[in-house]
Each structure stands twice: as C-alpha cells, then as structure tokens.
Amino acid sequence: KDICNQRKYRLRRKQDLKKMVATVERMNKKKKYYGEAVTYYQEYVKACVKQLIEGQKNRVKEIKRKTAKYSAQKLYEKGILVEIEKVPVSSFKGITIEFASTDQVGVFEVSGKLGAVNIDKINVVFENLLQLQYEGISTLKFDESGVVVNVNLLIFLLNKKFYGVE
Q1: How confident is the prediction for the chain on average, in pLDDT?
Q2: With 90 as the cut, is the pLDDT of residue 14 above it?
Q3: What is the DSSP letter of 159?
Q4: 3-state DSSP call for residue 139?
Q5: Start-to-end Cα distance in the chain
Q6: Which of 76, 114, 118, 146 is most exposed by smallest CB count within 10 Å?
Q7: Which pairing describes strands 117-125 and 107-114: parallel, antiparallel, or unpaired?
Q8: In whole angstroms, what is the distance from residue 136 CA to residue 152 CA?
Q9: pLDDT one-digit tens code per residue, 121-150
C-alpha cells in the first residue's frame, strides 16, 4: 500500500516543504518590519522626551539642571514612597530626597540625605518607568538601596516637576 502511494506522499512532502519555505520567508519579512518599527519607535520616544525637556517656549541651548527636594515623610504621605527597607516610617521626617535632571535626556538622579550625610544616589530612567507602567507593574524596588516607590505616582511627580505636564 505504501509503495502504491509513494508518489502521492512525495508530492505532499514537496508541497508541505514549499509552504514551509514560503512561511519562513513571510516570517523573516515580518521580523525585519517589526525590527524597523521598534527602532523607529525608540527614536520617536527619544525625540519626544528631548522636545519636552527643551520646552515649547524658549529653546535654550544650555539646559538648566532642575532639582526638586522632598522629605521622605511627604513622599510617603503622597503615596510615591512605599517603603525604605530597614528604616521605620517614623524616621522618614529626617530623610531628604532630591530629584535632579541630568545631562542625559530622560534620566534623573535621585539622592537621599539623612541630615547632612549623603545616603545613596540612584539613576532613574524615565523610559523604564513608562515601560513598567505599560506592563502594569505598580511598584518598583531599587535593589541597592531597598527603596520601594509607586511607579504611576513617580511618573506623575516627574512629569509635573520637570516637564510641566499635569
């Protein structure tokens, strides 16, 4: 029986092989298209963030470093700061947290001080925060310092203080 149908099987295998080759070619074209789309999207996001920093009014060649200082207690009350490992909430009043823009577009330096002593510095990339928000992740823990923040409220704060967006 197999010998009788050998020709049919061979033709079917050839057809299947042609279909698979065509599918692989289509998939490669789609892969290339989506790769180009991702590259375009990344460039677009960088351009948008740069335009936000430069501002719509007066485009100044030298971008001033903006800073915003808050007590950890105030950030905790607003819901931005969720917790700091090994630090009780009652000690938050003595901790000052400073957000500062950097020379890089969309990168912020967050530093903490306990009285006059510098605690830690963390670089926060705005695009990473937006990615976490898109993925539905509500809190972000900075491993090296043990600080846990609310992603959505941190994005809102950075938009409000550094980009003038509410």
Answers
A1: 83
A2: yes
A3: I
A4: strand
A5: 76
A6: 118
A7: antiparallel
A8: 10
A9: 888 888 888 888 888 888 888 777 778 889
User: In angstroms, rounded to a whole number, what is the distance separating the alpha carbons of residues 108 and 123?
Assistant: 6
Q: What confidence tens digit (pLDDT) does each residue in 65-124 have? A: 778 888 888 988 889 888 888 788 888 888 888 888 887 778 888 888 877 677 778 888
The first and second tokens of residue 39, run together, are 């590259």
Please give the model's pTM, rounded to 2 decimal places.
0.61
CB atoms under 10 Å from CB of 138, counted, come to: 12
Neighbours of 90 (CB within 10 A): 8
**153 contact partners, CB below 8 Å, separation of at least 6:** 78, 79, 80
53 by Cβ neighbours in 10 Å (0-12 / 13-18 / 19+) ranks as middle
b or e along 38-48 (b: 16 or more beta carbons within 10 Å of the residue's beta carbon)?
Answer: eeeeeeeeeee
Strands (E), the chain: 67-71, 81-84, 95-101, 107-114, 117-125, 139-142, 147-150
Q: Tokens 């630090």 appear where? A: 87
In sequence order, the β-bridge partners of residue 150 are: 139
Residues 6+ apart with CB under 8 A from 14: none
The letter for the amino acid at 12 is: R
Q: Are 37 and 44 in contact (CB under 8 A)?
A: no
